[in-house]
Structure prediction request, 870 residues.
Amino acid sequence: MNAIILSVGDELVLGQTIDTNSAWIDQQLAAVGCEVIADAIVADRQETIEAAIRLAAAHADFLIISGGIGPTADDLTRHALAAVMGVPLELNEAWLARLESFFQKLGRAMPQTNRIQAMIPRGAETIENTAGTAAGIHVKSGISNLKSEIFVMPGVPKEMKIMFERDVLPHIRAKGGGAVILSRTLHTFGLGESSVAEKLGDLMKRDRNPSVGTTVANGIVSLRINARLPSRDEAQQQLDSTTDACRAALGDLIFGADADTLPSVLAASLASARKTICTAESCTGGLLAKMFTDIPGSSDYFAQGWVTYSNEAKHDRLGVSENILNVHGAVSEPVVEAMARAARRLAKSDFALSISGIAGPSGGTPSKPVGTVCIALAIPPVAPGGGRGKGGYQESRVSSRTFHFTGDREMIRDRSAKIALAMLRFHLLDKPMPF
Amino acid sequence: MNAIILSVGDELVLGQTIDTNSAWIDQQLAAVGCEVIADAIVADRQETIEAAIRLAAAHADFLIISGGIGPTADDLTRHALAAVMGVPLELNEAWLARLESFFQKLGRAMPQTNRIQAMIPRGAETIENTAGTAAGIHVKSGISNLKSEIFVMPGVPKEMKIMFERDVLPHIRAKGGGAVILSRTLHTFGLGESSVAEKLGDLMKRDRNPSVGTTVANGIVSLRINARLPSRDEAQQQLDSTTDACRAALGDLIFGADADTLPSVLAASLASARKTICTAESCTGGLLAKMFTDIPGSSDYFAQGWVTYSNEAKHDRLGVSENILNVHGAVSEPVVEAMARAARRLAKSDFALSISGIAGPSGGTPSKPVGTVCIALAIPPVAPGGGRGKGGYQESRVSSRTFHFTGDREMIRDRSAKIALAMLRFHLLDKPMPF
Prediction:
């Protein structure tokens, strides 16, 4: 069982957008044992798209196309497919009705140009699109002597992925396949790629199966484990044992797997511990609160946060004394400790995280260069009452640290928020932070 | 003059490495007016590589291959090329000598496996590799009836880029004939892709030059203008005139060009108007403040923001009365208006933006489904004093609107923050928001 992946778009062949859809689809197919013969990218030109479809449809069991089914004049994939099939495009009334009600909900009339998104080649079927207006297109193999079974999806990654997982992949998986490749990704934060690799040692040997490779994205060092074996059971078994070995080597540095993120893991911990958190941010300007509220149901553990960007705001909102601000400066441990203490008291939450730093590019000084960031965590007092003010408010316990990050403004803000999450994570684990 | 780009590597068709070489080469070729017909990726399989070379060599003036010329058993590009040419691989003595001296300098004997890197198809020439051990391979067009002139380069991006710029690109540029392609991107927000296309009309005609295409990313509909003309001056002139035509068709819907973002454009407007903004957010949970503070120097216009996620926070921090909250609900225009009014007063800023909505996936009701978002903008009073409390604080003027967004939590939060930015943008333009 094999497939060819075809991406359509001028922006792709002009190198203005990097095609990430193909690599993602490649991974999904590998996981179900469908071999990818080739990934191809062509421009928004009907004759070129036709040639690519004709060629691929003669060679592969599956042809998976993304892009070129938008509503505009440069969206020509459906026309090319119909031409290769030697059939006309026909209006799918059911889809047209969906489109019209979609625009009704938006309180707008449907632009006439959108009608084309309900047109599919005669003999083809529509594929559900839960995230957009374009109907996916499914052509069974054998139609007009095409070897390939063909799926056409939108080029917008989000729409494509939902459609692929929902209606394309199950179909391909059902056809069964050859050698299975199962993958799992483990995520770490805090150490660099080489330090992680050192701890993994022989697990990263090139010829190992399952193989273990590392990738880095936004400070998260991820381990990609690939088990390539004849049977699904074997692959699963091997994948699990290598996963255990990686966990043994890295311990709590691993915060999650696959779709987990630092915020999603923290959300789960806070929810299960029935604890609440609030935030007081300066240089991250709301990013930390945004991360906490990225997670559905965040109201269970997050009620409020402050963005106190100026000194005046730190004083007016959180009562940070002008004296502390003047003596120690806005980027100092005394200031973030005062911010966290006040935030926790005002929000009546179990925990409070505060951040103040110099994200740059300007604002650095010799003693506090760009990348200097102070972070504090306020937690309940030891005494009974949990800081909930039985017999008067009991002051928080607060710990703070100063970090020095490299990189640009975006990196410094991102790392600052993630380290803050890590501080809370290790507190909830009741373990010292190993970095 | 046109080309096909071929990348070779198992890691690419397994989706474990994203092919960035092709996009980079695409850009280099576009800049010298060489049209890329297609980018293709194939696995490390000789028969597949052969098929790809045969196909491409029959269609394009240039075939540019990267990958598969390393020293290991899975490097098969040179074998495939020789097979397509119908000639044997021959040892290039000069390159072998280089390899041996290279390893001598390292104080090592050359591994026998490296000999293969000095082998090229009979009739081909080596291409200098200043950054690695593999000889690049150059095959003139016409050899064994290949239409394409073929260049084979290493897959390692660093080696490939040096080799391409040094010995491949000059060669292609010298062939001339082609046009220069200059590009510009204009960004719009607020209308869907199809509505933007309708306003552009004939500007998006397929055969037009400069061409105008649309792409969508995170709600931003961007126009990609590509001018393909013989001379750089002509291309620049045509690019500018088509840009003017797009601006005439879309007016203020266009908020920026190329690297501009909504926050960067707002930052510039606020700075030049010497105005300040604060934020009060519920469902966006800090995202709006984060967007304002993404921009270096944001302290000039942004001093503070509130994340009032719970009703209690809206009441305790911003004084939103329990009565309003109970009667209208947290997601209502009266509530966001109260939030904006209080935020502007407390922060002593010129403007305040507030957002309250249902980002989902849960929390929707029949009357207020997921995606319902209320946004308010508070601005200075008409009376002199600009709301800065000369003779007592003068109440803000506040306008609010209710929106209905589709998509998942992330999309709803993103669109909410962007619409809020748009409301402020059109207020600063002193124009009604056209959506």
